[in-house]
Amino acid sequence: DVKVTQSSRYLVKRTGEKVFLECVQDMDHENMFWYRQDPGLGLRLIYFSYDVKMKEKGDIPEGYSVSREKKERFSLILESASTNQTSMYLCASFRTSYEQYFGPGTRLTVT
Amino acid sequence: AQSVTQPDIHITVSEGASLELRCNYSYGATPYLFWYVQSPGQGLQLLLKYFSGDTLVQGIKGFEAEFKRSQSSFNLRKPSVHWSDAAEYFCAVGANQAGTALIFGKGTTLSVSS
Predict the structure, then answer these.
(1) CA nearest to A104 within chain B
(2) Is pLDDT above 80 for B96?
(3) CB contact residues (below 8 A), chain B span 89-108, against chain A
(4) pLDDT > 90: percent of chain B
(5) Taking CB atoms and an 8 Å limit, are B43 and A45 in contact across chains?
(6) pLDDT average, residue stretch A3-18
(7) Given an 8 Å threshold on Cβ–Cβ distance, is B104 in contact with A43?
């Protein structure tokens, strides 16, 4: 089975802190994604990466950056966390055919 | 622009009753379509997918979906709902030929009454 893991299930940070969300997949997938999920808004794409050191902005990249130094790991960085970044963050990966495998999510609260 | 609409925000069905969740998409080319399910506090799990061929696709947990090009729809069905089916359901469409992103609907929350 494909496994996508995320470093934390729950995270509480203060406004202005730098926050790192880590995602690791064990199936040698080229493509990895970060989404945020908010009630009534569904999933919105923040960034994605189709190869090591490659990244593309999604629909809502403002306030976020990403890092992909190794194929299996894709990190989402909040340079200076704000309260409007309180959300559920979901990581996903796939190799071909769009079928994305999701991690369990990280619920981030910024106070 | 591509888009996915799930018209029903919340649906309640009785256990044992049939279920249909609606999904309409807007996409110029042949779409790749998906249904995902998310149980409370969990990530998303793929229920089924449509790429081409038979327009009625079978998925896991007894779910099926039918692709209707003329109606731009991909509705999810289950003949008999179980209490464990209570969850949030997302329809998604493949956004481009390179296969690098999905566009999701806003989700439908399913409640199951006894």
Answers:
(1) B43
(2) no
(3) 90, 94, 99-102, 104-107
(4) 70
(5) no
(6) 95
(7) yes
Phi-psi region of B65 (alpha: psi -120 to 50; beta: other; left: phi over 0): beta
User: What does the pLDDT look like over B31-65, one tens digit per residue?
Assistant: 889 999 999 878 899 999 998 888 999 999 999 99
Amino acid type, B91 = C
Spatial separation of the C-alpha atoms in residues A25 and A94, rounded to whole Å: 9
Residues linked to residue B44 through DSSP beta bridges, in sequence order? B38
- Residues constituting chain A: 111
Nearest CA of chain B to the CA of A49: how many Å? 9
Dump pLDDT digits (tens) for A34-80: 999 998 888 999 999 988 988 999 989 999 999 999 999 999 999 99
β-strands A42-49, A64-70 pairing: unpaired
Tokens of B29: 């080319």
SS3 B69: helix
Confirm or reject contact between B60 and chain A (CB < 8 A): no
Is some CB atom of chain B closer than 8 A to the CB atom of A20?
Answer: no
Residue A24 contacts residue A73 (beta carbons within 8 Å): yes
Q: Which two tokens stand for residue A57?
A: 């902005």
